Amino acid sequence: MSDSIIEVVERQLRAYNEKDAQAWAATYAEDAVQLSTEGVVLATGREAIQANIAARFLEPDLKATVLSREIYGNVVIDHEHIVRNFPEGKGSVEMLCIYTVEGPFITHGIFKVFNKKLELN
How far apart are CA 111 and CA 96, in angstroms? Predict the structure, then answer.
């Protein structure tokens, strides 16, 4: 079971780094929900999830790297380093991503962004 759980999350990560919004959203259930750790709903449903990520995928330097991963039953917790293009310049953030996987899909994603840093020129 844990191999299939990891595989779904890995497919999602690959699609993110390939900036393929359709493949990325396809890893989420039709009725999936994305939330912040503060409980703010970021997106509900695969269509909204795909629409939300489209603008992010326009960033030329976007890339996520998993720093650590823990698996607890059907929950995967990734600590990621993400290179971003912010309005004020290129930089990075760290992100805590908590995925609940049911069957072949992510049903819930909970996210915390922290440690924003801008590159110094």
Answer: 6
CA 3 to chain centre: 19
Q: What distance lies between CA 58 and its chain's CA centroid?
A: 15
Number of C-beta neighbours around residue 14 at 10 A? 14
- What's 114's DSSP letter? E
Amino acid at 41: V
Q: Is the pLDDT of residue 31 over 90?
A: yes
Tell me the chain's radius of gyration from C-alpha atoms: 14
Cβ neighbors of 11 (< 8 A, separation 6 or more) are: 23, 27
Is 3 buried (19+), middle (13-18) or exposed (0-12) by CB count in 10 A? exposed
How do residues 33-75 score in pLDDT, each as one tens digit?
Answer: 999 999 999 999 999 999 999 999 999 999 999 999 999 999 9
**Run of H or E residues at 66:** strand 63-72
82: which strand partners?
64, 93
* Strand 41-44 with 63-72, pairing: unpaired
Beta bridge partners of 78: 69, 97
